[in-house]
Amino acid sequence: MAYRFGKAFYFLTLFGFVFFLLYFYSAMAESVGYGLNENGSVVDKISKETFFYGMIGLFVILNGLVLLPPKLLETKMHQGLHRIFPLGDVYRDYFLGWFYSFGGILNLSLSMMVFYTHAINNQQEIAANQFSFFFYLIPGLFLIWIVGLFIILVGKFKQIQQHSNKA
Questions:
Q1: C-alpha distances out from residue 82 to 43, 57, 61, 69, 74, Å
Q2: Where are the beta strands (DSSP E) in the chain?
Q3: What does the alpha-carbon distance between residue 98 and residue 63 come to, in Å, rounded to a whole number?
Q4: Average pLDDT in the 25-40 region?
Q5: How many CA atoms lie within 13 A of 119 on its CB side?
Q6: How much is the pLDDT for 124?
Q7: In angstroms, rounded to a whole number, what is the distance separating the alpha carbons of residues 107 and 102?
Q8: Cα 1 from chain centroid (whole Å)
Q9: What is residue 77's DSSP assignment?
Q10: Are 119 and 131 in contact (CB under 8 A)?
Q11: Nearest residue to 110 (alpha-carbon basis) of 36, 24, 48, 38
Q12: Does the pLDDT value for residue 132 go beyond 80?
């Protein structure tokens, strides 16, 4: 069940990122500011296309890295993973759910980056200083998810150890 929720969360954040990126790309000026000084004025700028293709490249690379292990497990392409997490194992569901939900967290953080960049460039709509909550939320979520992975792996290793002691 965690696998299905993780996958649903992943695809919702995937569509959210694509929507935010395309919508804000159409609303941006030809040069995009991505850095502010102490006074709140834009310091660093890049072209609109560089920002767009850079975000697409980062999105593809991060999602490819995060989705490789679950896809190898689902398609049974990696026999080692399939042996450790066989069909019907509860930890397989947790493992797959963790990777998809972690991909969702990555997509959520990329969406926040796009939204923050939009806020820097259009400060009359949303002030960039209103994002301080998200600057603490995203690293906190990453930390929680990494701890969750270790908990899943420790539980799986204990299960393997108990199984090998019975044999």
A1: 50, 30, 24, 11, 8
A2: 31-36, 42-47
A3: 14
A4: 77
A5: 15
A6: 64
A7: 9
A8: 20
A9: -
A10: yes
A11: 24
A12: no
